[in-house]
Design brief:
Elements (H helix, E strand, L loop, with lengths): L2 H15 L8 E3 L4 H15 L5 H21 L5 H36 L3 E4 L1
Antiparallel strand pairs: 1-2
Helix pairs in contact: 1-3, 1-4, 2-4, 3-4
C-alpha cells in the first residue's frame, strides 16, 4: 500500500478514536447537582456500550471501495485508483466517526431525559 493511502486510512481511524463519550447535555431541571453528576456518568457509561469507532471503520471501508470503483469507472489506473480509494477511505472514516459521536450524544440525551431531566441543548 502506498504511503499516502496508508496515512489517509490511519488518519480516518485515529479520528474515530477521538470521538468522546464525555458529552454533558445542558439540562433544565430541579434535580440536585449531585444527582446530575451520577446520572450523567451512568448515561455516559451506557453510551460507551455503543462504540463510536464502529461506524468509522465501516465508513472507511465503504469509502475505500466506492473510491476505488469511482476511480476505475472514470478510467484511472494503478496509483491513481489507490489515491482516490484513500481519499474515499478518509472521507468515509471521518463521516462515520462523526455519526458515531452524534449517536453517543443522542444516547446520553435520551438516557438523561428518561431520568426526568429536560434536555435543553445537545
Amino acid at each position: 500500500m502506498k504511503p499516502i493511502a496508508a496515512s489517509a486510512i490511519l488518519a480516518a481511524l485515529l479520528s474515530a478514536g477521538c470521538a468522546t463519550t464525555q458529552y454533558r447535555p445542558v439540562v433544565d431541571s430541579g434535580v440536585s447537582q449531585g444527582s446530575y453528576e451520577a446520572d450523567v456518568a451512568d448515561c455516559q457509561q451506557l453510551a460507551n456500550q455503543r462504540p463510536a469507532a464502529a461506524p468509522a471503520a465501516g465508513g472507511a471501508a465503504a469509502g475505500a471501495i466506492l473510491g476505488a470503483l469511482l476511480g476505475v469507472a472514470v478510467g484511472l489506473r494503478g496509483d491513481d485508483v489507490a489515491h482516490v480509494a484513500a481519499w474515499g477511505a478518509a472521507s468515509g472514516g471521518i463521516n462515520g466517526a462523526a455519526y458515531g459521536a452524534a449517536e453517543q450524544q443522542a444516547i446520553v440525551s435520551r438516557c438523561m431525559a428518561g431520568r426526568g431531566y429536560s434536555v435543553v441543548a445537545q
